[in-house]
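Model the whole thing, not chain by chain.
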Amino acid sequence: QQPVQSPQAVILREGEDAVINCSSSKALYSVHWYRQKHGEAPVFLMILLKGGEQKGHEKISASFNEKKQQSSLYLTASQLSYSGTYFCGTLGVSNYQLIWGAGTKLIIKP
Amino acid sequence: NAGVTQTPKFQVLKTGQSMTLQCAQDMNHEYMSWYRQDPGMGLRLIHYSVGAGITDQGEVPNGYNVSRSTTEDFPLRLLSAAPSQTSVYFCASSDGANEGYTFGSGTRLTVV
């Protein structure tokens, strides 16, 4: 039931764009996106809800395809501060368990 | 606001010992969860609660107990520590199913 994230890792130059994907095999109520820096706790970026509502970071964009149970996180004009590991978390329609993907490590080089 | 406070930050236990990891939030959030994160891996849900008096098991509940007697506190009890429970433990809270989670700073636990 763990969502699948891709790619596992991305290396970018500052200013380049990246897309991180998250897919689930179960019907979803919402998809969460978080960023975690080494040695720190995850930090909330965005939540995408069934029905189209989105809440979160103004400079982050994401999409949620409810039919395919897939979400994508779009990081544009990347900055050094974007480095870290990005996790998606999925909440099913039948319970309150937020289940996490394995993460995508993003490295931004100057 | 303090947010989500976890104590202790570091702990070393001997195999077989028991202990309680404390988690408190001051945001009046109904939803609270405990996760463990092993090196290089994602978070795995141990137990969660959707309100005072209501708890349920997550993906990896064996060896752990929780209780939720107040909205603010959600302690995690390790019954008999094992080396496989060496991990970083995070507590998180949310204002509901339509909101994101705020995480505590974590407890790094080593069982020897």
